[in-house]
């Protein structure tokens, strides 16, 4: 990904002067967000058709978070997240065909159909999953960062978790050790305001989640997670903090999920008006599109072209995910031990 | 060809839904991502987004149409350049009739059924009679979900020290809708929503029990109780012993255990054998609604820590439950759910359903299998099992969990120790395969035991 060059320019140029180059990548970021959006809509549709089973947690509404973060990352940086992971994998450059085929549980899926929506991995792309136990990825991510520090390889880990996950005890055990040992990790809290049906206010005694590292002396920032450029800026700073040996940092991304927690969701804990209002006023993709047009970085025809490209990728992924065969029955017994 | 929009499924068990409202009209131009309709089942609502660009050609159902089967076309979309004449020849499917309650055991559906509406007493006891049920008692059909809820509600009315805590138990009424109506009746002092902090709230539950309260701690599923297993074992199970009998822990840890549908390795596992190994714990794993109710009430009254293993796939199934003021079953008593003399099948929880199916198949071939529902896994009612094997001389154990050190392994070893001379064949264990649960539909099916596997095992012990 071009993330590496973005990183270099950020290092070289002083803050203000980069505002032109700051916008330069916007068409690309817009396209990446749109790919996630369209991919997730299709996944939702395929779930509706019975092609995807079990849990399926869509990322619609939160696209700017992972795309902005990834735009600041460098080759070799690692990512780990929970079960709401499709967007993260696409942003890591993982094959949409392989992701969608995993959702349908087929042999062509990234985990050969054995992991499903919540469990995909890519050693090649430095994506360490895809975890179903809320909070587990925080300790695991801290361990990845431990390995980076151990090897002194300059890589940073980005561990993503939700507002709900941020109450798990192992998060704080990890925070303590990460700061104690100055581990290079960005804790990205995706605060979409709800954990299933529980709002942050109902679950957190101190709801400013970016301040959750204070008693360990871990700095934290609150970031508008609905604006991809703002996210990228915060990410550049955070990654720099880690790379310069200052230890962990917390980014609380204020974001929103439009869809239910998983596919089935009684939706009684919030009003449709609330969802509609966020969608109408803060949608990260609409915002990027408007920005692109206002700055004359693209015209309507250019947008149409991006639309077409993205749709073709998603259509191909959906086609692949349906035509790829089910895994061979012998796969039941493989990959248990090496 | 116009694009057909189909009625979507919102969950693996959903069969039909309601079209609440169209957000577009015929002739509306739509783009991918636009919300075109609101769809609802009794558990969930969903905004239906278009994944295509085009013009709405025809809406095939009106606002408010109910009972639309999934995958039924609900609208036709014309792609760019398609004329409305393309719509001709498309038959409008009539809304499917709402299927009767009895045919829809899916948990999602049963979820919305008002719990109180269940009492339609009818005569005739179910197959095997419980000694706890007096002659002439009427029975009513209810789901396991309702039975569990009623058990908690009755015990909370009876004892002010009983309270329920867990993730989403109050306002959401339970992720699997077990605590429906409890917040409304008992208030938020006694029905407590927790953050996602299993280790913490399990410990808080144990502490409250040490102080004499009677907590019911719900785990959203037992997979997440792994976060808390330290408190279940080290704090709850061992304190009475460590305190020389001073300090007991009257607490119930409950929630769904075992395989759910298509949720893969981290969300599909049976912990029955794990907890059943621990001295100081009581472990209950009911199959039907009556056992669920009678044993949960007993568990809540127990002065000991009880791990109460439910099963998501059983929540929506209906069974006859005795209509009694206070129906409590004894912990530690297995039940013969189907008598037979040719072989003994021993199981618990959803394994009993599979065993009963297998027994039907076997009967058709002239083999009368006895099916025992263990119901309690610790203490294990080996007396009932051994007495049965004394008659049948053959035994097959059935569980969804892994074979090694499983419940079946314990049963087989116990029969060998205490009933070796009664056996005419080695005990066979039918188990889940020795693998993590795969996601793919075909592999998941292969990983779980099925009635056919039980049939084959029973035939093998009968040398047929
Ligand atoms: C240890 C554990 N407890 C409970 C669950 C069930 N569960 C899955 S997701 C979820 C809500 C998490 O919310 P949040 O962390 O805010 O992430 P979001 O879903 O909003 O992305 C819960 C309770 C789980 N998977 N693991
Ligand atoms: Mg959340």
Describe the structure.
The complex is a heterodimer of chains A (338) and B (464). Chain A has 338 residues and is α/β, with parallel strands linked by helices. Chain A has one domain: Rossmann fold. Chain A has helices spanning 3-12, 19-24, 26-48, 63-72, 86-91, 96-103, 136-151, 169-180, 200-203, 228-243, 272-282, 284-294, 300-323, and strands spanning 78-81, 127-130, 157-162, 185-191, 194-195, 198-199, 220-224, 249-254. In chain A, the strands form two sheets. In chain A, strands 2-1-3-4-8-7 form a six-stranded parallel sheet, with helices on both faces. Chain A has a two-stranded antiparallel sheet with strand order 5-6. Chain A is globular. Chain A starts with a helix and ends in a 15-residue tail after the last helix. Chain B is α/β, with parallel strands linked by helices and 464 residues long. Chain B folds into three domains: 1-82, OB fold (Dihydrolipoamide Acetyltransferase, E2P), CATH 2.40.50; 139-322, Thiamin diphosphate (ThDP)-binding fold, Pyr/PP domains (Rossmann fold), CATH 3.40.50.970; 335-461, Rossmann fold (3-Layer(aba) Sandwich), CATH 3.40.50.920. In chain B, the strands form five sheets. In chain B, strands 11-10-12-13-15-14-20 form a seven-stranded mixed sheet, sandwiched between helices. Chain B has a five-stranded mixed sheet with strand order 17-19-18-21-22, sandwiched between helices. Chain B has a four-stranded antiparallel sheet with strand order 1-8-6-3, with no helix packed on it. The termini of chain B are far apart. In chain B, 53% of the residues are buried. Mean pLDDT of chain B is 90; it is low at 93-127. The chains are: A alpha/beta (338), B alpha/beta (464). At the A-B interface, α3 of A face β5 and α12 of B.
